[in-house]
Request: fold
Amino acid sequence: MFIYVINGEGSMVNWNDEIKKWLTSGTDTKEDIMDMVWNVKDEKTYLIAENPKIPFTLYIYNSEKFIRIIASTGLNTALLEPLQRLDIYRKLLLLNDKIDMTKFVISGTNEEIILKVDLDAASLDKNEFGDALMGVLTSLYMMIREFQLEDEFNKRLTDRIVNMIQEKIAEGATREELLEFLVKKIGLDQKTAENILNEITNKFEYLPEYQ
Reply:
């Protein structure tokens, strides 16, 4: 299912294609968030966007009037004690009062903390989408600080990078290609990249190819 919307100029826009182009056409050489190159999966009714530098998965839904960005935190509250949940919900409401456009909500049977923003498809362009994306990520990092979850999300980010490296090894990537990925894509210095790669490949079954 493809969602087409008539923009302000009267032309038809396939938002799945347009947003995917915005997220994948960067160079990873600038500080601008829209210059980051995202891995985007098109699930027809929504897009899944991931970046090795960001410990969150984005889900981008299209409707006739709105583009909705949802950031999954993986933090579920359904089984917490009532006082814990009350404290979390209070902090989320206070965060909502500090941020514009984006809002924290509780979603699903697991009552996961998610962040979402709705954008008007009739007037949406790349700059507005980039501003919304920056707002989403800024709000999420505010949440991390508020709940003192830096270690949790640093570990999640490390696990994502390790999984990506293992997938690339399984696909036949050379050591040079893996180092280039860690240095240019992730932004690590050469020595750190080599240490991480050594640690990963020492545990991987294709080790002989990389010695």
Summary: Residues 1-6, 205-211 have pLDDT under 50 and may be disordered. Residues 126-146 form the longest helix (21 residues).
